[in-house]
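Hi R.,

Here are the chain sequences for the assembly we discussed:
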Amino acid sequence: MRVIVRSAAYRLAFAISLVFALATLLLGAAILYAAHAALARQMDDSIELASNVLITEYHDEGLRGLAEAIGQRGGRPDALGYALFDAAGRRVGGTLNTGMPAPGWRNISFLDPVEGPDPARALVTRLAGGYRLVIAADLEPLEQIDRTILTLFGAAFAILLLIGLVGALVSGAYLRRRLARIEATADGIVAGDLSRRASIGPRNDEFDRVAASLNVMLDRIANLIANLRQVTSDLAHDLRTPLARLRNKLETLQEPLEPVNRRAVIDEALDQADEVLQLFDAILRISELDEGSLRRRFAPVDLCKLVRDLGETHAPLAEDVGKTLHVKAEGTCFVEGDRELIAQAMINLIENALRHSPAGTGIVLGTRKAPGKAIAFVHDTGPGIPDVEHERVLERFVRLEEARSSPGHGLGLSLVRATADVHGAPISMSNIDGFEVALHFSAMEGLSA
Amino acid sequence: MRILIAEDDAETVRFVERGLSELGHHVSVLGDGGDALRLALIENFDLLILDRMLPGMDGLSILRRLRAADVATPVLLLTAMGRIENRVEGLDAGADDYLVKPFAFSELAARINALGRRPPPQEIVTRLASDGIEMNLLSRQVRRNGKVISLQPREFQLLEELLRNAGKFVTRTMLLQRVWDFHFDPQTKIVETHISRLRTKLNEGGLPDAIETLRGVGYRMRAE
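And here is the predicted structure of the full complex:
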């Protein structure tokens, strides 16, 4: 019973069946009223008709003729009763056994020879000499019909109520069962089994659709959790190396050392500490980007000029490692964004091109325009990244096997992606004549030359 | 220098106070923002170091009230996170420089030096010189011992920054901010590479090294 009271499904089903039953009851009352009124009018009409005929007879033939006519009619089975009273109130004609009523339409009681006292509808007409003509119809048939209608609809109401009750129980149980499956899945997940999914039926009804949406949501959450676990363990792994080295350096410093060597060890220890700090800086920066609140500070940035500046700044770095860096960025091209974030992203791309390509590689840093777009790209003639890995390298801490041995924390491209996301700029990668990564910014209307 | 530090983190206070005293500065420390504001209003300091997050009153509010009261003492703001928004807010409120916690003491020391001897704003400098190196900011010409040295624009800016602070250490972060306008660490060797090119050009012909490097701290131009 508690289950039923607390179940919205049951309550709803009950409410609907109750409304239907009440509607039936209302319909019954209306029919009863209408039928009763129609029959009563019909009864009055036939009394009036008989009265007219008899009065005409009375006018034509006088009291005698009237009495005769009453006598003849008394035998007819029209269910009407007649009585003629003299001025003293004595019944002088007709068989209707009743006292003399007042003139006009009356509800009277008469003595039925078979059934005893019975109510009747009567029209009492005053005649000359104090005589009164009473014509009455037994109300019994009308009451009979009222009773029939009442019984019929009463039964219909009861049956509907019963059907509603059963229907409510059945549909309520069905709804509860469907919902219980989803509930069970949720409970399972709460209990720790993240692989649980709601079952989806073949009908694609609303429950199936809700279950399907839930499953998609759960997949997404499971993915995020898996990603988080991966990131956590990668982070721990990446931190262990510099921290272990730092520890070793500090241990070395406990030994007596020549001042020169001591200085060198301290420098190395500082490098390891810096590496840890850089890793955290990168993580903080990405999470700041993920928040998206930076968008409020966006201002026009001349992407072409920024790329030229970065090219000028990084050309010597390329030269130092036996590579070349050329710039192809003409004129101006304004995009809405954060100059420093875009700069950092482009620097990461340049850094990647420098780091993961053989000596002699030519790198081109440039911009190009497309309708409504300002595209910044870094192209190199190095080996590139296999197509299948393009999506993966943008994830956090991902370093391809070939890059394992080189320095870096695998966050560079994640930062590029976070920057691209916050600027609404899609990233493209292609292995044509080498490798190109491009950021497709929306050009600012009216500002691009 | 007389320095007021408004900072409530005991660990930071300990190492900053000890370091600055070691360098010969007179340091006053207050842990409450309201107290710091009152003291800064009545006493003359050469520099205020304000933490953004303080009990009583936060660093930004102190800074705004001081500037509203026409106190022009240089202010170095300490912020807990390197959030770009925080930095912009701080500079907008009238801070002369900012430093992100946690910081290396050498970074703080370099910035305090730079702030303490900043020339008054009305003074327009057109010529910088130190240790035989001359720089004309109008003709953009650089000479060492009379011989013209041709520099790339970045190298010129780098040298300008070093000359302006001749005799003092300028950190890598300061150079990134002032020469490249990068308020982040690009984690590349751009500063090192450009310094190395500048150094090669300055020292051409076997001249003694004009730029001193202190690992983990920064670079220093020899003063006359």
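The interface with chain B takes residues 267, 270, 278, 281-282, 284-285, 288, 293-294, 297, 312-314, 316-317, 320, 338-340, 343-344, 347, 350-351 of chain A (CB under 8 Å). The CA atoms of residues 294 and 397 of chain A lie 23 Å apart.

Let me know if anything looks off.

Best,
T.
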